[in-house]
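Dear colleagues,

As part of the handover before I leave the project, I'm documenting each prediction I ran so the next person doesn't have to rerun anything. This entry is a single chain, and its sequence is reproduced below.
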Amino acid sequence: MLKTAATALCLILGLAAAQAQDSSGASSAGPSAAVPPPAAADDALPPPIACTFEKVFVCESSGCAPSSELGTIDLPARFLIHFGEQIIASVSDDKLPHISSIQSVIGDGDTLILDGNDNMAAWAIELSPSKPEATLTTLAGGKVLTAFGTCKPAS
């Protein structure tokens, strides 16, 4: 136990020293490897997008069937995707806000795919900044949920 506490203390002190060095500008070798470099000007993030999903199918080993809700959210389900904050926000039926972190965004041409996981559920969204169609897929508890909807710039 003492060895674990001593190791944790050394890690904390090392992190504090590294942060102090970064904030003082003492290192002239460039940014720390732990801090990603700032995005280039041509890598501008898309503005926030508002998505509405109106058609949902839930599939399990016995087959697929339409659903009237997306998880715990009645249809139409609405989401805000904020690329700068790397989050997806929604409100459940009990009016509690829910935020899920975007773990990665990949793009090819006019298609973006976002993914993440939340409470033992994995999810992915495919959308286009210039076209309204969007698809959301989640995997959890032996079920696959696929939702179809539209996205537009958030106002």
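Confidence is low (pLDDT under 50) at residues 1-41. Residues 2-24 form the longest helix (23 residues).

All the best with the project,
I.
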